């Protein structure tokens, strides 16, 4: 997807996919191309632009940063493709990582089917398991915080003749099948799509909106005060409406 953000990024995206690595020597060019990305997208596409900005800032912070290098002199940064590392056997992967790196920093898994690289040597900072993107984490958070949308976890093979009454007030519902992104479906024709999904997967069925008023807001952490000319910042009014400060899930939490 990153190759679609800018023509200059396509070569780097192909290299990452085919070779499985962008070495430090190529990162100057990569950062330059990331700097050319303009934040002109809206809606769902804007997330990919935000990812590009975050990746650029992260690389610039990590490269030759003496404060995070055990030797205190700073070191270069390589970008590694997680799937390429997972294609190696455990001993080979460990040998490659220990020979070339002092620290591993993982991005969040793209799906709950992509396993992260676990390592105690070299030190590893990142999500420990891919289940952080699964429906189980959602359900656990709803349980711990005592709040969340009306939700039903339906076993594979279940067939519904009508919706649960708790979902009647909603005009749109969210369907999440195992290992796939969620989809939003109108309540008026959800049964056909739901029963089709249940024929091959368990499904998390959730209330989404009444009168089409729902909106998903992606909040970037930390909450830096934006510069006057910075268009790439969180909409403060949306954050205020979310009331994140008082939400129980935000208390005593560290976001990585």
Molecular structure report:
The protein has eight helices and eight strands, in the order H-E-H-H-E-H-H-E-E-H-E-E-E-H-E-H. The chain is α+β, with helices and mostly antiparallel strands and 256 residues long. A hairpin with a 5-residue loop joins strand 6 and strand 7. It is elongated, with a radius of gyration of 21 Å. The C terminus is likely disordered.
Instruction: Tell me the fraction of residues in β-strands, as a range.
Output: 5-15%
Order of helices and strands: HEHHEHHEEHEEEHEH
Mean pLDDT: 78
Major beta-sheet overview = 4 strands, antiparallel
Radius of gyration: 21 Å
How would you describe the shape? Answer: elongated
Helix content: 25-40%
What is the distance, rounded to the nearest whole angstrom, between the alpha carbons of the first and last residues?
A: 23 Å
Secondary structure class reads alpha+beta
Low-confidence runs: 244-256
**Which strand order does the major sheet show?**
5-8-6-7
How many strand elements?
8
Number of helices: 8
Short structural summary:
The protein has eight helices and eight strands, in the order αβααβααββαβββαβα.
Notable characteristics:
12% strand, alpha+beta, 256 residues, disordered C terminus, four-stranded antiparallel β-sheet
List the helices and strands and how they pair.
Elements: H1 9-19, E1 21-22, H2 27-35, H3 46-62, E2 79-80, H4 82-86, H5 90-100, E3 103-105, E4 123-125, H6 135-145, E5 151-154, E6 172-177, E7 183-186, H7 190-198, E8 203-209, H8 236-242
Parallel strand pairs: 3-4
Antiparallel strand pairs: 1-2, 5-8, 6-7, 6-8
Helix pairs in contact: 2-3
């Amino acid at each position: 997807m990153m190759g679609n953000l800018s023509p200059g990024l396509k070569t780097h995206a192909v290299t990452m996919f085919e070779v499985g690595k962008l070495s430090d020597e190529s990162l100057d060019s990569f950062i330059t191309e990331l700097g050319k990305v303009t934040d002109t997208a809206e809606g769902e596409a804007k997330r990919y632009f935000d990812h590009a900005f975050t990746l650029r800032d992260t690389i610039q912070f990590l490269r030759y940063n003496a404060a995070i290098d055990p030797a205190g002199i700073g070191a270069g940064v390589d970008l590694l493709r997680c799937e390429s590392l997972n294609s190696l056997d455990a001993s080979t992967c460990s040998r490659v990582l220990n020979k070339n790196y002092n620290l591993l920093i993982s991005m969040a898994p793209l799906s709950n089917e992509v396993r992260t690289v676990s390592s105690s040597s070299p030190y590893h900072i990142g999500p420990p398991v891919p289940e952080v993107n699964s429906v189980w984490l959602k359900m656990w958070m709803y349980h711990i915080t005592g709040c969340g949308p009306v939700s039903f976890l339906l076993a594979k093979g279940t067939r519904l003749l009508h919706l649960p009454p708790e979902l009647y007030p909603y005009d749109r519902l969210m369907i999440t099948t195992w290992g796939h992104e969620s989809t939003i479906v109108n309540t008026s024709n959800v049964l056909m799509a739901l029963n089709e999904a249940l024929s091959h997967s368990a499904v998390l069925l959730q209330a989404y909106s009444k009168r089409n008023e729902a909106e998903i807001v992606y909040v970037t952490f930390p909450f830096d005060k934006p510069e006057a000319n910075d268009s790439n910042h969180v909409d403060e009014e949306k954050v205020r409406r979310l009331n994140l400060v008082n939400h129980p899930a935000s208390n005593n939490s560290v976001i990585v």
